[in-house]
Amino acid sequence: MYRSSDSGPDAARRRSYDDLRFVFDIQGYLHLRGALISEEVAEYTRWMEEAEKTDVHVLNADHPKGMKRQLNRPVSRVIDADPRFARFLDHPAVEPLLVEFLGPDYRHIDNELYYIYPGYQGGPWHQGVRPHPTGHVVDGRFLCPMVKVFYCMTDVGPGEGEFVAVPGSHRAQFKIAHRDRLDLPGQRVFDDVKAGDVILFNEGMLHTGRPNPSWKTRKTIIFNFGRSDAGVWPGYAPSPRTLEAATPHQREILTNPARVWAEPDLRPSRPKAKKLFYAFCSLFSRSKAVSTSCSPAPGVKGLETTS
Ligand SMILES: O=C(O)CCC(=O)C(=O)O
After folding, report:
1. Which domains does the chain have, with CATH numbers?
2. What pLDDT, in 10s, does the model give residues 137-146?
3. Which of 194, 202, 212, 231 is the most exposed place for a label (fewest CB within 10 A)?
């Protein structure tokens, strides 16, 4: 409900977009409920049933060593198993958000059909990239190095191998011991998911999958993205057949200038002029007045990217 007279579809669209950007910034993730319509869920479920039958050794016959870095639970490189899955590179439910968080020329890093089977013991807590003091917002713009998209293809309730994350940890200033821990303080367990929901998150956020003591399999189509300078994760370079079948825009997303993934160095650093200034100040560090005026400014003003 809004009090202002700023109404109409454009205003509503702008406001909901602003809301999503706000939430992604502070939480590090978005849970887009009902992002896929039921007809889509039914269609993609049929694609998945076919892709599950893929012989992953045949799929990777061109580069068997690449399989070392793949999960294949049940199929990594699912766009190569069935190029129709390239749809998830620029699905309209997420594309504008990827442009906002990664830039208009965002790139593919990896993709999977990812299942959490009954009996799964749970994974280790991890982050695909380091946290960043401002959550990768610099000068009012996102420069996230990695954003992952989960197209959730099954309902997920409590005790069904849920995805779990620590909202806000993409900007954590302190480390937390997370080895061998099932629960972390501040975590959010995604136990209210419906088939057709999309979860997308900043890979700087701590996350993992919980044990699955149920009889249900949690099924997700995962697509992972980076900025224009991102390379693919080893073992995930798309096949020529996939590139040929893709649309021109999808082909662009699949065309990484860098051959393999490397995290860009976004640690705060001082611009050169400031560095010289501080060096000059340190020469006179015995003078109280000078050393006080030279104390480094707090905050993020000195953030630079290496890309
Ligand atoms: O959904 C899950 O169980 C965790 C997946 C995950 O950690 C990842 O894709 O990085």
Report:
1. 9-253 (2.60.120.620), 268-307 (no CATH)
2. 999 999 999 9
3. 194
